[in-house]
Specification:
- Helix content is about 30%, strand content about 25%.
- With about 425 residues, it is an alpha+beta fold.
- It has a six-stranded mixed beta sheet with strand order 8-7-9-6-1-18.
- Strand 13 and strand 14 form a beta hairpin.
- Helix 1 packs parallel to helix 2, helix 2 packs across helix 3 and helix 5 runs antiparallel to helix 6.
- The longest helix has 23 residues.
- The protein is globular and about 70 Å long.
- The chain starts with 5 loop residues before the first strand and ends in a 14-residue tail after the last strand.
- Bound molecules: ligand DP6.
- Ligand DP6 binds next to helix 4.
């Protein structure tokens, strides 16, 4: 071992798109068929943490562990490409400054963990690849010379949606036009501090069957769906402009309208795929109906929308809402979907912040704060556990460097083992 330990540990957030990425024009470089836009969620609640170390004694072989299991780094795979691109950036830095240690020539060891179980049904590839890129960037001391957007271009080659997790707040992935992918990267639309009031309630829906993975599903849509062509040409470009303006203006009603319309358009494209792909199930659709009724009743009183739903490649709902609406939304969801586990991050139930409510048996009454015109028969009260878990979080910041060198945050031992 060399005497100095060259290592960095970073955390990176999850992001949930409001304009969905669905389709690639280049499957190898991961270049999308349309722009997309997402909200970065708070990594105090959901995150991936990664330690990356370079050492001359690592005998030329890069190794990576994910949640305790070693992953094979395939020669033409996504991990290989990300690590190689990061090494190239380090090499360029070393070429300019001969006094730097030649970390680019040494093998790396990477150890990564998510603080949320994959069983929660949440995709971890975005936060995982973002944490990988952030930790290698910190290890190689690439910033500020290399911009965050340039790093996002590399994260994109790990998983498309990962490029958006390199920024906090409100983030656009500009799909770009070049065949090289040089102009396909993430940019900040607005930082978290611009509109910190936006919160999210993730409703983890029970689902036994394993759905079509997004990588395969989106290519089938590209190959077979005429509706996707309409989405790419006529739908997304205007929505990108309109939702960016809504974010600038902190206009929740417009934000909500576009978010829900885009989720529905994306799932319509899935249905338009041959053979069709179904990600939403009956419980997902009941949450759509409930949210639409909440919004209708609120608007009947001359007020704004209460919440916006969006669904990725699975049955889970993510409800976005201004902070002030969350107590009403949470209690309404808990009424219709009893017994969901709930980690009360913001102490809405008054039992202390982070108190865990493990599927309490008591029926939850509808909240007093509901709009008067709300039709309580809009959906039935569902069977216990139809929504398994509720995660309350908010818009958050971008990747954080937790530690440089070997310390308390390290996921690798002094010997470089997981
Ligand atoms: C529905 O980023 O997981 O969540 O690029 O093939 O790794 P790959 O796909 P991935 O797809 C995410 C699709 C989505 C929409 C979105 O996040 O924009």
């Amino acid at each position: 071992m060399s005497s100095t330990i060259y290592q960095a540990t970073c955390s990176a957030p999850v992001n949930i798109a409001v304009i969905k990425y669905w389709g690639k024009r280049d499957t190898s470089l991961i270049l999308p068929t349309n722009d997309s836009l997402s909200v970065t969620l708070d990594q105090d609640h959901l995150r991936s943490v990664t330690t990356a170390r370079a050492d001359a004694s690592f005998d030329g072989q890069d190794r990576l562990w994910l949640n305790g299991e070693e992953e094979v780094i395939k020669p033409d795979g996504r991990l290989r490409r990300c690590i190689d691109e990061m090494k190239k950036l380090r090499q360029a830095k070393e070429a300019k400054d001969a006094s730097l240690p030649k970390l680019s020539e040494w093998a790396v060891r990477v150890c990564s963990e998510n603080n949320f179980p994959t069983a929660a049904g949440l995709a971890s590839s975005a936060s995982g690849f973002a944490a990988l890129i952030a930790s290698l960037a910190a290890l190689y001391e690439l910033q500020p010379e290399v911009s965050t957007s340039e790093l996002s271009r590399i994260a994109r080659q790990g998983s498309g949606s990962a490029c958006r997790s390199l920024f906090g707040g409100y983030v656009a992935w500009q799909g770009g036009e070049q065949a090289s992918g040089q102009d396909s990267l993430a940019v900040e639309v607005a930082p978290q501090s611009h509109w910190p009031d936006l919160q999210a309630l993730i409703c983890v829906v029970s689902d036994a069957k394993k759905g079509t993975p997004s990588t395969a599903g989106m290519q089938r849509t590209v190959q077979t769906s005429p509706l996707l062509q309409h989405r790419i040409k006529d739908v997304v470009p205007q929505r990108m402009k309109d939702i960016s303006a809504a974010i600038q203006n902190k206009d929740f009603d417009t934000f909500a309208n576009i978010t829900m319309a885009d989720s529905n358009n994306f799932h319509a494209c899935c249905l338009d795929t041959a053979p069709p792909i179904f990600y939403m199930n009956d419980v997902s659709r009941a949450i759509v109906q409930l949210t639409e009724e909440l919004n209708r009743a609120s608007e009947a009183e001359g007020k704004g929308k209460l919440a916006a739903y969006t669904y990725d490649a699975g049955p889970n709902a993510v409800l976005y809402a201004p902070k002030a609406n969350m107590p009403t939304i949470l209690q309404t969801i808990r009424h219709y979907f009893p017994n969901a586990d709930f980690d009360d991050t913001f102490d809405l139930l008054g039992k202390g912040a982070n108190a865990s409510h493990r599927g309490a048996q008591d029926a939850v009454a509808l909240p007093q704060s509901l709009p008067a015109a709300f039709n309580s028969n809009v959906i039935p009260v569902h069977e216990a556990g139809a929504v398994r878990r509720l995660i309350h979080t908010q818009v958050g910041d971008g990747p954080r460097v937790l530690e440089r060198g070997l310390g308390a945050e390290s996921l690798l031992t002094e010997q470089g083992e997981p």
